[in-house]
Amino acid sequence: MFHRVNSVLDRVLDGVQIGSLWLARAGGVLILLTVVLVTFEVLSRHFVGRSAVHATEITGYIMAISASWSFAYTLMCKAHIRIDALYLNFPMKVRGVLDLLALLAMALFCVLVVGAVFDVTLHSFSGGSTANTPLGTPLWIPQVLWLIGLTWFSFAVCLLSLRVLFGVLSGDTEGIQKRAGSPTLDEQIDDGNKEAAR
């Protein structure tokens, strides 16, 4: 039974990874947009003497949005910062339990953050809040885009936590290591060689 559930969750997580990659790419495009906006603003200040766009405000929103859109992809690639000096010395079963505890803590944090951001966004929308800037952006617009990224991240964390939980219960240490375990130096070298070969 656990093998079947793990297999289904692996397929779903593969789809989540693809969706996360596209969100991260969209975030990258937004960051490139900030480069264009800032360049245009610098040139307009130099040649016209005043700003033609409100790049400071817009880039602030874009940075928050693009960061939240990349969290899930970072999770799926196991690229979050880890302190694993002791972790790699533990047996695989202990590592799996530690991975589960870390993911559950992250899932709890995500659910709390998404709840708070949802409340803020709802309050901004219902109250008609706007930025206290010349642009006067309705705050719910960037907040909804920010919320989308955080919600997707929470979804990814919860699914991965579920996969690791079933992996721990079924003794699938290899599956846990593949999905959530901290990569060893050898695995990082192998991944680097695969990337170089492409």
Descriptors:
single chain; 198 residues; mainly alpha
Break the fold down into its secondary structure elements and pairings.
Elements: H1 2-47, H2 55-76, H3 92-127, H4 140-170, H5 173-179, H6 185-197
Report what the structure shows:
The protein has helices at 2-47, 55-76, 92-127, 140-170, 173-179, 185-197. The two termini are 37 Å apart. The protein is mainly alpha-helical.
Radius of gyration: 21 Å
| Regions with little confidence, pLDDT below 50 for 5+ residues | none
Largest sheet: none
Give the end-to-end Cα distance, rounded to a whole number of Å.
Answer: 37 Å
**Count of individual beta strands:** 0
Helical/strand content category: mainly alpha
Briefly characterize the structure.
The protein has 6 helices and no strands. The chain has helices spanning 2-47, 55-76, 92-127, 140-170, 173-179, 185-197. It starts with a helix and ends with a helix.
